[in-house]
Amino acid sequence: MRSVFAQFQRRMVFPGPDGVSVSLLSEVARKVGATEVRIATDDGETLYGWHRSAVWSGPRRVVLYFHGNASSLLAQIELQNLLLSEGWDFVGIHYRGYPGSSGVPSEAGLHLDAEAAWRWVTEELGAASNRVALHGRSLGGGVAVQLAAKVSPGALVMESTFTSLVDLAKEHYPFLPIGSLLRHRFTTREFAKKVSCPVLVAHGRADTLIDVHHGKELARLFRADEYIEVPRMDHNDVLLVGTIAARYLGFLEAAVPGTPQ
What we know:
Elements: H1 2-13, H2 22-32, E1 35-40, E2 46-52, E3 62-66, H3 77-85, E4 89-93, H4 107-124, E5 132-137, H5 139-150, E6 155-159, H6 165-172, H7 178-181, E7 199-204, H8 212-221, E8 226-230, H9 245-255
Parallel strand pairs: 3-4, 3-5, 5-6, 6-7, 7-8
Antiparallel strand pairs: 1-2, 2-4
Helix pairs in contact: 4-5
């Protein structure tokens, strides 16, 4: 019974994207000019990822991106293009167990994945740590924040992220003893005092999956340098493009200037 419940939790927390195959990823990578990369983790898994390089004369700037639990690299092409246009390289990975990556997803495993991606960006790509911005969306925010607490990034962006997975689960399933049952906890709020880089928090005001109060609380706890609350936007809407893009890019530019100060 315990193993059955563990499998159920895994499917709920890490459902993966629908209709995304390795062949489709490769096809789109060719179209958008992304280099497909393979990244080894400390526990022997191999992660699939993309590197999209900006045409930029100054020192390299990188956004290291962590996607949501039902998402993939294909979901943020518009955001990637925006970053490239402003001189930012984009690096994104698929977590273990997601298309192209080996292994089985877990909270501990995803943190190892994030650390492996960080090493690849700073060692293989050669980016200075203070010129790397971490951007996590939804579940990815819980991944990015733990990495930010361990390393020294130039900035941290949490988009549509929860205060903790336990908090969120209690809101959706108030009739269950979630606190004692949930294996994957992603306690984002507990890292507030361990993150020293500039922080941006963005949330859709009409988010029906992760209520906007999570974003407000994270902004308060992390003393966010920028808080963006986007009217009429639900959880799966793309927040940081269109009219909001200028604030997002302005935050990144202030944290990691195109020309080092």
